């Protein structure tokens, strides 16, 4: 590579996204006091650009505008320019995205916002092309117009920014109304189910026409709805909607059939042509969903998809110290000599490539059949490419094929006169060869930032899959990642989590000069992960740390006046608003997950004030839960768990005993959304016995491992057979 012509101060940052912009001719600053002081001192507008390293349109805007010497000169002359990685600073992103959504009716990344020197927004948008076009004003024009306005009408802009801020403050406030109590769970659950049912795609699964997102929060809701309505037609439909969606996604092009894992979302109704980036938070949540689908259905297909996701993460998103990387990019160079990256280049195939790689004749098949014929038939490959030109506006996928399982294995086998049992082995051989060939291509950019929140979601993925599939290796990987968090993303002196760390030189783990403190979502997803890891491993140390973090979360983020938790701490003067997210999206919102966390924490500690807090969160979101619960399916699910009361499943027994292991396997193999599992091993000095004195009164019956089902620390009659226990857990 040639020596870069420009280098700005982003070269000193750790974020892969900021480093991508370190050689722009723009005088970029990171978010911080140095930039704010410069804007005030020189009385300049701040141009804030927010994105992330695997964002396709962020790359496009950089290539078109931020690498332009001419546009860079305009930016440097008139503005103080700040770059923010939204994954590092979700708090900054949320404040200004709220503004962009309210003022423009849409949002997305890259986000472009213009602020007064005291950080108040007055103009904003997302991607801008560099020059004016038929339908859009160009970035250069916008910059010059705003610079002119600031010069001529500064007072009007300042007044406007103050009015906008006051309006945002009012519209974004979420608090309890009067003496409001948690909404009734039956109405919330039924309304949410009906709203999801109306938006459900009967043919292809999912909850929209296009684009189509995985939305694990919807699937999690449907599994819980089924578990609470097993014998009703509505319960059966909820289960069918979730399982069909998961099946269609696994067959689709959104699933990487060669390299494993799932891409971000599908641009079409059929789950066929994806945006190709792969995000850690999707892998973590989908590993849980496919494990639950296996628990409920017993269908090995779902277990195999869960294993596929965890193989991808273990191989491609894992740091040698134990943490998980954030994402893989959509764009890459098609060949080692290419000058330009293309979306999906790493993942797509021409028919000629496949025929050349899979020329072997297939014994026992119709005469003339090659491996290539079988593979191409099964995965919908066409000679001219299988991508609809309407889904490929930049012609990047012309003549290429995105693999999608178009036929059932039985149908593919029948078409070539094969025994159904042989097809699996043939397809595996093809996948192995294509994986080897693909490894020769230039890989997409890897975002090696490690975030506490997303690592939490992935730990839950490994822990829950380990428990449901009885795979100790997955539980061990979850524990390794939790130990990584405790070493690299936790400050034992203050008891606080940190947001991020980074892969440094020589594969060391590095921290920013000024570490970013953890946000609400970091605490919530890590606490959830530690509870999941305790239930999978029964190591009480994880439980103890989870409860410590829950106390810290209460201290840093709880709103004692309006109830629920703020997304960020109170002591950052650069944040204009403290927000509470009110929408479950690609990830569930932190307040949704924390309701269940608090109920679990109360079961493990006996602190009933956490149950009260859970109810107060539901009360604060009551209006939204009753009107549009489809926007908060994870919180709607938690409403049912709150009203049902969590059942404590206590197994009294020797952790090494076969009878204890059988009981534990029974509990873990059943999907029961309103249970917590604990092992009473007889060690009265252990953490759990100190927290829950009632455990000392529970005994093994006839010297055998014995299960008790407890509610509010009052226990049922003891059970010593796994069959009886299964019946108790599956009403």
From TrEMBL:
GO terms for biological process: carbohydrate metabolic process. Pfam families: Thioredox_DsbH (PF03190). Gene3D superfamilies: 1.50.10.10, Glutaredoxin. InterPro entries: 6-hairpin_glycosidase_sf (IPR008928), 6hp_glycosidase-like_sf (IPR012341), Ssp411 (IPR024705), Ssp411-like_TRX (IPR004879), Thioredoxin-like_sf (IPR036249). Residues 7-168 form the Spermatogenesis-associated protein 20-like TRX domain. This is SPT20 protein. It comes from Pitta sordida. The gene is Spata20.
